[in-house]
Amino acid sequence: MNIFVMRHGQAVSQASTDALRPLTEHGEEEVCHMAQWLAQQVASFDRVLVSPYVRSRQTWQQVSRFIPGTRIDFCDELIPNADADITASLILAYADVEQSQNLLVISHMPLVGFLVESLCPATMAPIFVTSGVAKITLEKGHGGLFNWLEGPHSIRPHRPRPWPLCGSMG
Question: Average pLDDT, stretch 3-19?
């Protein structure tokens, strides 16, 4: 099973509550950029788990323009300061019951970093930029393997180079 953990896009700094902060225009653009890149690697998500906060819901709306999801759930276990071990248990339960191939989680810092650490005990909690996505491969009985973490400013296209790699300039 592949688990994709995504931080929401850039949000406005002020709203009446943290839960009501929407994405900025830049946040929508960076989410679209990441979704287009991610669509080259995954055709669809069997299950999508989304924080109920506005910015996370909007992030899923943008991602779903490029990658469909079969079942979407909005989970209180995905708010920013939720317990990562409880959230990891929820994800593992979905993995056991459904035999999903690709699962997407959209949430917030610091939870997304701690969630990676909880699912992959040999990995320290990474820092996610807005719209950052981590991929974890989960094998039954072996725990999670942290594959990568990419953000909208660091992603590299998945296309062949038009020139050969050079060993030296001299």
Answer: 96
Is residue 85 pLDDT above 50, yes or no? yes
Q: Is the pLDDT of residue 166 over 80?
A: no
160/40 Cα distance (integer angstroms): 13
Strand-by-strand arrangement of the 69-74 sheet: 69-74, 45-50, 102-107, 2-7, 133-139, 143-150
Give the separation between CA 170 and CA 163, rounded to whole angstroms: 17
Q: Are 20 and 14 in contact (CB under 8 A)?
A: no
pLDDT number for residue 121: 86
Superfamily for 2-150? Phosphoglycerate mutase-like (3.40.50.1240)
Report how far residue 79's alpha carbon sits from residue 43's, in angstroms, rounded to the nearest whole number: 27
The first and second tokens of residue 39, run together, are: 């669509």
| Helix, strand, coil fractions of the chain, as percent rounded to 5 | 30, 25, 45
Residue boundaries of the structural domains of the chain: 2-150
